[in-house]
């Protein structure tokens, strides 16, 4: 029997924050302390919508966002991350030479309302996100202050120990970032002390060329 995506989303929320306890959230939602634990033990049984709403409110999230966390991201247009602070998983793409006109033409077709766009190139295969090495992301580097849940965002992550930084691409489900291929299904909590949203991904496409477009780290 298929597992309920809301319950699977809850499981990932608790996996992402070991200090968050099912009994505590159940009590905060005005439910019996064992409610969420029983749900997690029987993920094939869907909860009543009213119960899901109370749990989501207790977590400060929306039911739809928790459900999305548990239902996969096959419809996501784009998303990425870098492994450590070594070779980047996404890097800025310099549109020069024969690629310049083509990139701008495609970007205008995919995002006609975006006056100024930036290109990023994916550095490694990301099967969960339907992205391959060399795929191009069209990004808006002037994002709204609070992107809507489910938005694909560029996230700048700083390492306070070394002073270095890396750019990730993630799906935003406040207060979580989903889609880290190196972290399985577990979302990461957004940390405003070390993370900043620098843009949103508005489209992606694949260049069908033998010569790879030049990229800068």
Structural key phrases:
217 residues, 2 domains, 9 strands, 27% helix, 434 Repressor (Amino-terminal Domain), Umud Fragment, subunit A, alpha+beta
What are the SSEs and their pairings?
Blueprint: H1 5-16, H2 22-28, H3 35-41, H4 49-59, H5 63-70, E1 90-93, H6 98-110, E2 118-122, E3 136-140, E4 152-158, E5 165-173, E6 176-178, E7 188-189, E8 195-205, E9 215-216
Antiparallel strand pairs: 1-2, 1-9, 2-3, 3-8, 4-5, 4-8, 5-6, 6-7
Helix pairs in contact: 1-5
Order of helices and strands: HHHHHEHEEEEEEEE
Which sheet architecture does the biggest sheet show? 9 strands, antiparallel
| Quaternary structure type | single chain
Q: CATH homologous superfamily of the largest domain - what is it?
A: Umud Fragment, subunit A
- Counted by DSSP, the helix tally is 6
Quote the beta fraction: 15-25%
Kindly, what is the distance between the CA atoms of the first and last residues, rounded to a whole number of angstroms?
46 Å
CATH class of the largest domain: Mainly Beta
Number of domains: 2
CATH architecture of the largest domain: Ribbon
DSSP strand tally = 9
Helix-strand category: alpha+beta
Q: Uncertain spans, ≥5 residues at pLDDT below 50?
A: 72-87, 209-217
Anisotropy-based shape: elongated
Which strands sit side by side, in order, in the main sheet? 7-6-5-4-8-3-2-1-9
In round numbers, the mean pLDDT is 76
Rg over CA atoms: 19 Å
Say what the CATH topology of the largest domain is.
Answer: Umud Fragment, subunit A
Helical fraction: 25-40%
């Amino acid at each position: 029997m298929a597992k309920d995506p809301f319950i699977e989303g809850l499981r990932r929320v608790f996996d992402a924050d070991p200090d968050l306890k099912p009994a505590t959230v159940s009590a905060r939602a005005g439910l019996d302390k064992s409610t969420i634990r029983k749900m997690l033990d029987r993920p094939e049984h869907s909860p009543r919508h009213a119960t899901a709403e109370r749990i989501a409110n207790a977590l400060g999230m929306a039911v739809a966002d928790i459900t999305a966390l548990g239902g996969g991201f096959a419809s996501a247009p784009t998303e990425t991350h870098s492994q450590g602070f070594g070779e980047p998983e996404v890097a800025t793409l310099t549109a020069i030479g024969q690629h310049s006109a083509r990139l701008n033409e495609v970007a205008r077709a995919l995002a006609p309302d975006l006056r100024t766009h930036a290109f990023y190139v994916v550095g490694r295969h990301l099967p969960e996100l339907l992205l391959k090495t060399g795929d191009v992301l069209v990004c808006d580097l002037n994002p709204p202050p609070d992107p809507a849940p489910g938005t694909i965002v560029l996230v700048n992550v700083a390492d306070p120990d070394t002073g270095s930084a890396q750019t990730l691409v993630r799906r935003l489900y406040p207060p979580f970032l989903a889609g880290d291929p190196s972290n399985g299904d577990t979302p990461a909590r957004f940390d405003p002390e070390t993370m900043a949203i620098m843009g949103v991904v508005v489209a992606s496409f694949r260049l069908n060329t033998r010569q790879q477009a030049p990229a800068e780290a």
